[in-house]
Amino acid sequence: MTPDLDAVSSLQVTGAGPARGSLQVPGDKSISHRAALLAAMAHGSSVITGLSRGQDVTHTLRAVQQFGVTVTDVGEGRVRVEGPIRHEPANFLDHGNAGTGIRLMAGVCAGIDGLSVLTGDRFLRRRPMDRIAEPLRSMGATVDGRERGRLAPLVIRGGALTGITYAPKVASAQVKSAVLLAGLSATGPTTVEEIHPTRRHTEEMLADFGARVRVDGHAVTVEPGELTGTDVEVPGDPSQAAFWAVAALLADQGEVTVERLYPGFGRADFVDVLKRMGADIDFDLTTGTLTVRASKLRAIELTADDIPGIVDEVPILAMAAAVAEGTTTISGAGDLRAKESDRIDSTTRMLRAFGVQVTETEDGMVIEGTSRLRPARVDSHGDHRIAMTAAVAGACAAEGTTVIDGWDSVATSYPAFAADLVRLTGAGVEPGA
């Protein structure tokens, strides 16, 4: 294994074999974004330990420095951030492929008296931004962009905000977070009322940084005020652990343990889904230790009530469904069409490449389980989760050689994924042709 595999455009994986071992996954990407942004907004010094080293979070760290915030690598996996934000950004803010980064940063910029320009790569520039532009405008910010603010680059003139009560049209922790971050600079309280509860990272971390925030059922309210720097330890990312959980389930002989995971609200729902499918899986909420053993899976039905808690795990759960007995139905997942790729389309194409019978629907898919996958050539469409799902399938369930095009997308969240894949499965991995 060489580090060069982290950045190759195409990866070749030869399987299938057992999946055995234990590991720690990168720091939680969602928490890492929020830790960097809140530390930048806060007065004083914050030391963040275990920060995700993927490109998405690197873009957020670079962006906060444009506001006069000092970011220092102090060694041993720790980063010191010296806030607060002192002025409008000195340059445009490039968020690469990070939807979380740009949407949360929009909330920060809405509260700054100045002009901010937010952009990203070609994949990010086609993802919808009107979902955060609408509430930020209601608070008093000026938000423009391509297609009247629906697409990045976004241009935000912030300051002089008024608190609002907002009910998002889609279940999105990113939208909720953007509004709450803007609410810190508003006059009066800001409340977000959700139809379906989403992950509570922002609420939890706002409290850690000294904000006055309260949760009442599906509603969360933040009062305006300043933040105070604090130290943050970022736990492992459960959405990354899901790949190794399914690796153990796909392999004929599999037992994998992932340690030090975040056990908070809305992040372990994929564990419950796999249990419903018959997986032999345990998650210790006290230690954050996940253990999974090879199991015979059965088909289930996933609906709109399930999706908010597994929004990042749908591709890998769909792969588990591909080897489950029976027909799995996924519905209510229309928002997946606005991720790094159109994840309903890209997941469907990936499954078909592996020989799975799958029917794409407007808001999901219908998957017919099969006893064995065939080797495939898969286009990630620039989506790291499609690429990693295909690599797991190729290493654990498809005898022969699988090629994943667009492998370099994985560097956005999990640069060492290929190395961990080899360590757990013994798969042959090399640049694809």
Structure commentary:
With 433 residues, this protein is an alpha/beta fold. Helix content is 30%, strand content 26%. It contains 13 helices and 26 strands. Helix 12 packs parallel to helix 13. The protein is globular and about 60 Å long.
In brief, what are we looking at here?
The protein has 433 residues and is α/β, with parallel strands linked by helices. Helices cover 30% and strands 26% of the residues.
Features:
single chain; 433 residues; alpha/beta; four-stranded mixed sheet; 26% strand
Low-confidence stretches: none
Let me know the number of strands. Answer: 26
Count of alpha and pi helical runs: 13
Outline the biggest β-sheet. 4 strands, mixed
Distance separating the two termini? 17 Å
Q: Tell me, rounded to a whole number, the average pLDDT.
A: 95
Beta-strand portion reads 25-35%
Q: State the secondary-structure class.
A: alpha/beta
Q: What is the share of helical residues?
A: 25-40%
- Radius of gyration equals 21 Å
Identify the overall geometry: globular
Strand order of the largest sheet: 24-25-1-26
